[in-house]
Each structure stands twice: as C-alpha cells, then as structure tokens.
Amino acid sequence: MPSPLPSIAILGAGSMGGAILHGLIRSGAAPHVTVTNRTAASAASLSGQDGVTSLSLEADPAANTTAAAASDIVLVGVKPVMVPDLLREIAPVLRPGTIVVSLAAGVTLATFTSIVGDDIPVIRSMPNTPAVVGKAVTGLSAGAAASADDVALVRRLFETCGVVIEVPEEQIDALSTISGSGPAYVYLLIEDLTEAARGKGFSDADAALMAEQTFIGAAALLDASGEDPAELRRRVTSPKGTTERAIAVLQGARLDGVFAEATDAALARAKEMAAGA
Q: Which fold has domain 8-172?
C-alpha cells in the first residue's frame, strides 16, 4: 500500500479544486488538506470533513499564507488573472521543497518561477471536469526544479480523481484542446443526437434517455472491453446494414477534419489567452 500523501493546500477550492479535494477524500490518500475560499459560505460548504481544514479570506485575510505555510504541496486554483498576486503573497512563506502546482489555464511555468523562485518545484496541471466523479484526464508539465520524485508525488495526487498524462509544457495547451475541452464536445454530440431523436417523433424525455444512455453505455463498454474503438464500431456496423449507411453519412461530412479544425481553433485561443489577449 502506498504511503500517504503529505499535507496539501488547495488555494481557491472552486469547482476544480473542490473536485480534487473530493478525490483525495474518497481515496483516503491525504491525511490532511487545507482549502481556502473567498467567502465564508463557500468555506463552510467544505468544512466538517475528516482531515479537511476549510478557511475563508472573508474571515481571515491571511488564509492563503496560513494554508501555504503549513503544506508540502500547494495547489493554486484561483482564476488565472489572480495567480501572480497570490504567488507574491505566498512566496515568502513557502518552505524549502514545497511543491507548487498550478490549476490555472494559460499561466506558464516561467510566470510561476519568476515569482516563487527558481528553487521551488513547480508543476502545471490541466485536469478536466470529470474529476468530480473520479474520471478526470489530467495533464502534468514539470518545471526545471521539479524532480522525478516531485512529479511522481503530484501524479499520485491527481490519480485520486482519474488518469494522468505527463507532457512537456509546450504540449499542455494542445492537451487542453482534447481532454480539457473534450467533455463539451461530447455533450454537444449528445445534444445533437437527442435533437435527431426528437425529430423522429420521440418525446423529450425518451429522446434524452436514448441519446445520453447510448453514450454512457458505449463509453462503459469501451472501458470494460479494452478494445480499440474502431473495432467496437466495426462490430456494430453490419455490412450493408443501417449503421453502415449512417456511418457513411458521418464520414462523408468529414468529422475527422471538423475535429481537427475545432481543436486547432481552441489551441489558437489558448495561445491568445497566454499572450493576454
């Protein structure tokens, strides 16, 4: 059984930070986590759980420094525009060897190290929203000061809420266009398939049930079988059958090109955001 994770702080435990907190709680891997939020109401919603200390800036303006000073891993979950100010606030209290982990999209490792110092290990992370149910895909990019042991520790942290892929920083934005934005693509496909069902006379409830459960079931079968998705598609697609006719229409619409164009557009926007546009 792996050793417990060291003390962790989540500064700005909003939707993503909160999802990671719940993953840690479910796993029992972290004996102590300190979380901070802006309001007392948000802090109260996360308090009362074993091993969790929930602080609010409303009640204690020094909550972020208190949490960071007492932790071995500090997750920065505030909005990207707020990151530099937060880093300047906590940098003086970080202990040697403390690992700083970014949850903020578009904020580079260089920005982090320029404020916290070259000797503090920094790792960028890019989780996605299925972290809430323990099914995240999280990308990790390590800064120069992060050792292999540091990365392994942070990997274990994120594996409490899904799977982890390690990539160089120049690929983290590209990863975000696939796994980060990817849930939205799936939801759009479900919306459109639901609309197609409505167009064939099904009630709203039945149309939604068919479309949603088909995606959920197909994903579950893919996960359970370990088969390549192309092979599973072939098994559904009987020669000269109805599915083959439908797949031909979808392939004729060049979905592969559409997805390439969509993810390219997302990547271009990520670069704009990183440049402050």
A: Rossmann fold (3.40.50)
